[in-house]
Design goal:
Blueprint (H helix, E strand, L loop, with lengths): L10 H9 L3 H9 L6 H10 L16 E4 L31 H11 L4 E5 L10 H7 L4 E6 L6 H9 L4 E5 L13 H20 L6 E8 L7 H10 L4 E6 L12 H6 L5 H17 L3 E4 L18 E4 L24 H5 L2 H12 L7 H4 L6 H13 L5 H16 L3 H13 L4 H17 L3 H14 L4 H14 L18
Parallel strand pairs: 1-2, 1-8, 2-3, 3-4, 4-5, 5-6, 6-7
Bound molecules: S-adenosylmethionine and iron/sulfur cluster (SF4).
Length: 496
């Protein structure tokens, strides 16, 4: 529960109150802060005695959680989407989820049915993984790993802690993947899989179930038949396929070699080939899925992660809603898991995902590899062929417009922001521009125009907390938008 103290309250704390439906408290708090923004006061005064927004769009707390116990990895796959292609410790020198951080996460995950341990780096690097698994002895537990650190002793430790599922990531021979396509890596990997089966036999155990996670690209596409066959012969029960995403260099540019091997320029061909081959192997009794879906489709919405899972990396509070790029506004830990889960940002996400057409979804969702692979690859193609943005000039223009607004030269600022919107902008900056335009609309009393601006700001950056708070207040003043019906959420079909 958020507490208001007698000390000066910060703007962030006021925003937290608003997003947790405590508008009357926020108004009282703002009145004690002399320099609080005029726009925020105006909105709070009008919104304080109006009804909450989307109180009906709450959801039961999830049962499936992904937890990342390690932030290190020495394997350095060139395709790595977690930053280890650049540095073995890309997270500011942090190495593992500590037992202390685990205790902080525990209240959020203790009633779960499923704990999936994955990444951020190499999962088995964590010296605390055994301890965490012990706490989850009554849950369905899964570990995703490259398999490099899987020795007889390590496997014994996992089996003693009743690990239910071991998911090994391996792509066959591709220079950008695990082992860089080296034959000795591949040989070693199959031996690890054989070791798992041997130990299960020795200990007369049916677990851990074995899954193979294959990241598919142009180079290994033709190896799928051979990989499936080898996997099936060695008792792999489930193959999870996922098209390779294009990662970035430290400076933000796409990694050229990974882009060239991805489906960016050949998605349709890759998709039909994979669907056909997956059907063929399903007929032979192998369980094959695309992430969690039966077919690789052009689009699969609404997203089944929303309303079903949360991801705890331990690197940031709060947890993430998905393994892609969608972020929610930062909230203090004291908010508590269940209040956070049904706070306004989550209710608004449900409104967009289950009650609105796809074009209204956050930009990150519209271009997500898991749910809109064709569009994701299209954006990669566009980015690869686009001229490099002159960010220095763009940021200068943005600063000039913000300065004009700060000095109350609203007409000048408005014109400058509108001109920026006409050009090519980074998404976060576009979101900022919409927010400034919305704030000036509030000051002019143009609430409907302000509402549209804040909605646009959030579409471009779903973590923009101030835009969330302002939109919430404007919705209270104007009345929450009507919607016809809520589509049922998509069930999460993974693992039982
Ligand atoms: C970042 S790894 C962390 C866990 C562990 N180190 C491993 O490799 O399994 C998590 C998953 O992301 C997959 N992965 C890595 N880079 C990827 C990419 N560019 N596209 C799609 N999946 C990728 C890996 O194959 C693995 O299954
Ligand atoms: S093993 Fe996993 S974490 Fe390490 S570089 Fe490869 S994909 Fe990234």
């Amino acid at each position: 529960m958020l507490q208001i103290t007698a000390q000066a309250i910060t703007e962030q704390e006021i925003l937290n109150l608003i997003l947790n439906d405590r508008v009357a408290d926020a108004l009282r708090a703002v009145e004690g802060v002399e320099e609080s923004a005029h726009s925020l006061r105006t909105l709070l005064k009008q919104a304080a005695h109006r009804p909450d927004v989307f109180p009906e769009l709450t959801a039961p707390y999830p049962t499936h959680f992904a937890i990342s116990p390690s932030y290190t990895c020495n394997i350095a796959c060139e395709m790595c989407n977690a930053g280890f292609h650049i540095d073995p410790q890309p997270y500011g020198g942090r190495d593992f989820l500590s037992p202390q951080s685990w205790e902080e996460i525990l209240p959020w995950i203790k009633d779960a049915t499923h704990w999936c341990f994955v990444g951020v780096g190499e999962t088995l690097d964590s010296p605390y993984l055994n301890e965490f698994l012990e706490k989850g002895i009554d849950k369905y537990t899964l570990v995703t790993t490259s398999g490099v650190g899987l020795t007889r002793r390590r496997l014994g430790e996992l089996m003693n802690r009743k690990l239910d599922c071991l998911q090994i990531s391996f792509e066959g021979d591709t220079v950008v993947g695990h082992g860089s396509g080296r034959p000795e890596y591949s040989q070693n990997l199959w031996e690890k899989i054989e070791l798992v089966q041997e130990m299960k036999q020795e200990l007369a155990s049916t677990t851990p179930h074995l899954e193979l996670h294959i990241t598919v690209n142009l180079e290994n596409l033709s190896q799928m038949n051979a990989l499936f066959e080898k996997a099936m012969l060695r008792g792999v029960e489930h193959i999870v396929l996922f098209p390779m995403s294009v990662n970035r260099e430290a400076g933000g540019a796409l990694v050229e070699a990974v882009y060239r091997q991805s489906f960016a320029e050949n998605y349709e061909g890759g998709r039909s080939f994979l669907n056909e081959i997956a059907d063929r192997w399903r007929a032979k009794g192998l369980h094959v899925s695309f992430n969690e879906y039966q077919k690789l489709k052009e689009a699969t919405t609404p997203c089944s992660y929303v309303d079903n899972t949360l991801l705890f990396s331990g690197l940031n509070v709060p947890p993430k809603v998905c393994c892609g790029s969608l972020d929610m506004p930062h909230m203090p830990e004291e908010t508590g898991a269940k209040a956070y889960w049904n706070s306004f940002p989550f209710r608004y996400l449900r409104y967009l995902m289950f009650c609105q057409p796809e074009q209204r979804q956050p930009r990150d969702c519209q271009e997500c590899l898991a749910t809109h692979p064709a569009r994701y690859f299209e954006t990669m193609r566009e980015e690869m062929s686009a001229d490099t943005l002159d960010t220095v000039t763009i940021y200068d223009l943005y600063r000039e417009a913000s300065e004009a607004k700060r000095k109350l030269r609203y007409e000048e600022a408005r014109l400058q922001f509108l001109m920026l919107l006409d050009g090519n902008l980074p998404d976060n900056l576009r979101s900022g521009v919409w927010f400034h335009l919305g704030e000036m609309d509030v000051l002019r009393g143009e609430m409907e125009a302000a509402r549209d601006c804040f909605e646009n700001a959030l579409r471009e950056n779903f973590a923009h907390k101030k835009a969330f708070a302002f939109l919430y207040l404007v919705y209270r003043i104007l009345g929450a938008p009507d919607y016809q019906e809520r589509q049922p959420k998509t069930p999460l079909r993974i693992r039982s």
